[in-house]
Structures are given as C-alpha cells and as structure tokens.
C-alpha cells in the first residue's frame, strides 16, 4: 500500500456534559486490558458525499454517541475501593479520531477477508508516541481512523481497549454509530453496569476450571495496576510465525457434519461444532504436541442469557467467557469424529449460572487468565453480523481483524454467496501444510 497521509487527528469529547462516575470492572473484564484492532471496508459512497463530509459526519456522530457511551470517553484508574484493581473513570477526556488518505485503490489490497500487513496502515495514526510507557490514566479507551482510498472506497478502523467491550457489545456500538451517522436514534441503549458479574463474598469455587491458568511468577498479574503496559500478554511465549488463510468450501463443511453424525452417537452437529472439532484435532497434531499431552481449545461462550438473572439488554461489557474442549493428543488421533465433536459440545453445555459464578470466583482467588498451556483460542468472527451495518456513506462490505495474535485461530466469512468459511491461523509453513492436509482428509 502506498503511503497513507494524515488529513487531521482530533480528540472527540461528549457533546454535552455527562455525570462523573466510576464503573466497576469485573473479573471477566480485567484479564482483557489490551487493545483490539479491526477494520471495515466500504465501496465509494453512492450519494457522492465528499471525504470531508464523511469524516465530519463521523465526528458529529461520535460526539453524540459519547453521551450514552460516556465510559468510552473515560480512562482506566485504580479502583477507589481496591487500588489493586482497575475501573473506568467517566471523566469525559474523550477519544482520538483520525482522518487519512491514500492513493492506493482498494482493489490493490487483494483479498480483504483476513489480517494482512497492509492493514496496519489503516491504524497507522492510532498509536501514541511512547505509548508503552504511558500511564493507564493517560490512554484513551477508543481510537478510530477513517481512511479514503484512491478509488473513493473507505476503511473505518477501530482500536479499543477490550476491557470495555466484548465482541457482542462492540457490535452494538457499531450499530449505534452507523445509526447516528444516518441521523437516526440509538438502536440499542448501552448498559455498562457489570456488577452482575461481581465475585461472591466469600468466593465459592464449585467446579474445576481448566479454561484458566494461574499467573506464573515471571508474568505480569493482569489484575494489577502496578505496570504501565497495556498490551496483550496472553500466549506471549509463542513465537511469531506467518498468518495463513485456508478456505473451507460449503461441501467440505457439509461432509464434516455428516461424518460426525454417521455413527448415530450425536443428535445434532452445527457448523461451528464440526469445524471447531476438526481445527482442534488438526492443529494439535500439526504443532507436534506429544501424544500424552492434554490439548485445550478455548472458544468464547456468551453467558448473557445463561446467568440468573439474565444480563440486561444492551449490556456493554465483557460477558464472553472461555469455554473449552480438552483431550489428550492421542485421543484426538484415535477417537472417532463424533467423540471429538461431543467434547466441543460439552464445552458449551457445561455452562449454567453456577458454573459462571464459580469461574468468576476462581479468578477472584487466583487472579489468573485464560489457559495458555498447550492451548489456543478459536474465535468465530463470522457470527458477529457486522455486515448488516449501514453508515451514511454506505453498507459495510467486509470486516476483519487487523492482526492475528499468536495463539488465536479465527473463523472468518468466506466469499459473499460462497457459503464457506476461512480459517486464519499463525503457524510455521511446515506446520500449516500438515494442518491443511489433516483438515481436508
């Protein structure tokens, strides 16, 4: 991609004063004090509005939206009741928004279905100089960059602190932002109250929680406010490799589901169950984990409707809890497809209110993080439904993460109308070749 040039960079604050308040961060939020980056692409506006009109519309929409989303305009600070934890001070300090241009045409980027190095240019103006040394209280919780391509197409990139929102709540935010750019009202009223996920006093751990690992002595405690860094340290020991994209056509998805149901031991098998089981098996074998080692696959489970009482509509926080499937590599090699799929299904079915509460209490006691021992996380990006968003400049065309962090595997949508999926993973070339072979056999 040719050089991306900054048009302007501004701080956006709520358009009217908001009440100063503190927002409690739950044990589901605190391990996620890390920035997430994603980018959405749009065709040239059909209504022929100028780029200046587009980014000024975005500014106005954000000023209005930061009134109900006042917490996004705040900063992370030590909690008043427990200064070993963080909370959000809704102080109206604002967010950072950049407008940029490039002569590159969108078509020159090639496929837009997965992370790639060129996408980093689309968040080029969303990092502060010396940011890694900045205090939490000085870091905005949200950065946005709108970039115009030489062909008139647009890219809307966001960089936000994951402790504020999970994927489902971020989707609601984008729907509301799209509505405000069109001059419409809120689609979903955000509710950032996370007290429903407070740990019990005293904590009661009633289940084993293999989805979490205890912090080691040499690693930063993610609940701590002692450090200045705000980077994702999960899976940090895994070396960086090359991002690969593997397409799974709809016929292959259908055959995997049929294979899982063939012996009659399962009543049903969804697309996610079938793909997750195959990815788990293929990745565990391809990465040459010893047969006797237990391999763990994590995947987000939305507990909004699982906890009692249910989380209020519009919940703006983290309610995606790591589910897990766990088995020895030997089992994954030797057992039939239905057995592996069943392990994935059990990872969802074990969740009820007590299991969620027990996990929150486990985190309260151990101050741990998602399991990082012979594990990886599978994220079904294709389930977010972002393609429904319509901004003033047009309907979203594609959306993708900007980078793939080590230890993550993304399930991304395939080509429009194709019905397939793309698997995006980060492995050495020899291992990804073996993964692909196992996936297709």
UniProtKB/TrEMBL annotation:
Keywords, comma-separated and alphabetical: Transferase
GO molecular function terms attached to this record: acyltransferase activity, transferring groups other than amino-acyl groups
Superkingdom to which the source organism belongs: Eukaryota
InterPro entries listed in its UniProt record: CAT-like_dom_sf (IPR023213), Plant_Fungal_Acyltransferase (IPR050317)
Stated family: Belongs to the plant acyltransferase family.
The protein's name: Omega-hydroxypalmitate O-feruloyl transferase-like
Lineage, top ranks: Eukaryota, Viridiplantae, Streptophyta, Embryophyta, Tracheophyta
């Amino acid at each position: 991609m040719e050089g991306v040039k900054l048009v302007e960079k501004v701080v956006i604050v709520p358009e009217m004063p908001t009440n100063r308040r503190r927002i409690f961060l739950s044990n589901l939020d605190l391990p996620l004090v890390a920035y997430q980056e994603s980018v959405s692409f749009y065709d040239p506006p059909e209504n022929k509005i100028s780029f200046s009109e587009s980014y000024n519309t975005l500014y106005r929409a954000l000023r209005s939206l930061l009134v109900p989303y006042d917490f996004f305009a705040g900063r992370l600070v030590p909690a008043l009741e427990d200064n070993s934890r963080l909370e959000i001070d809704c102080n109206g300090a604002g967010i950072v928004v950049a407008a940029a241009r490039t002569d590159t045409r969108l078509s020159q980027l090639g496929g837009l279905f997965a992370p790639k190095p060129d996408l980093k240019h689309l968040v080029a103006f969303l990092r502060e100089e010396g940011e890694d040394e900045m205090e939490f209280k000085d870091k905005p919780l949200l950065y946005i960059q709108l970039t115009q391509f030489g062909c008139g197409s647009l890219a809307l990139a966001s960089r936000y602190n994951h402790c504020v929102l999970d994927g489902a709540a971020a989707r609601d935010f984008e729907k509301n932002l799209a509505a405000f750019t069109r001059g419409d009202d809120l689609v979903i009223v955000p509710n950032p109250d996370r007290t429903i996920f407070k740990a019990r006093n005293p904590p009661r751990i009633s289940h084993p929680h293999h989805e979490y690992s205890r912090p080691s002595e040499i690693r930063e405690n993610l609940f701590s406010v002692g450090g200045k860094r705000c980077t994702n340290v999960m899976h940090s020991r895994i070396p960086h490799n090359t991002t690969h994209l593997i397409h799974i056509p709809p016929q292959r998805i259908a055959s995997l589901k049929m294979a899982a149901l063939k012996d009659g031991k399962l009543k049903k098998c969804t697309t996610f169950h079938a793909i997750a089981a195959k990815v788990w098996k293929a990745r565990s074998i391809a990465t040459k984990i010893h047969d006797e080692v237990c391999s763990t696959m994590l995947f987000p489970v939305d507990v909004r409707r699982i906890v009692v009482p249910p989380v209020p509509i519009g919940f703006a926080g983290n309610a995606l809890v790591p589910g897990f499937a766990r088995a020895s590599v030997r089992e994954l090699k030797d057992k039939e497809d239905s057995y592996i799929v069943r392990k994935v299904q059990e990872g969802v079915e074990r969740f009820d209110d007590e299991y969620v509460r027990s996990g929150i209490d486990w985190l309260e006691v151990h101050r741990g993080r998602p399991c990082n021992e012979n594990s990886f996380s599978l994220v079904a990006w294709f389930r977010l439904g972002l393609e429904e968003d319509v901004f003033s400049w047009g309907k979203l065309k594609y959306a993708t993460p900007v980078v793939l962090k080590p230890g993550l595997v993304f399930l991304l949508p395939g080509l429009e109308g194709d019905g397939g999926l793309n698997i995006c993973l980060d492995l050495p070339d020899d291992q990804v070749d073996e993964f692909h072979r196992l996936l297709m056999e």
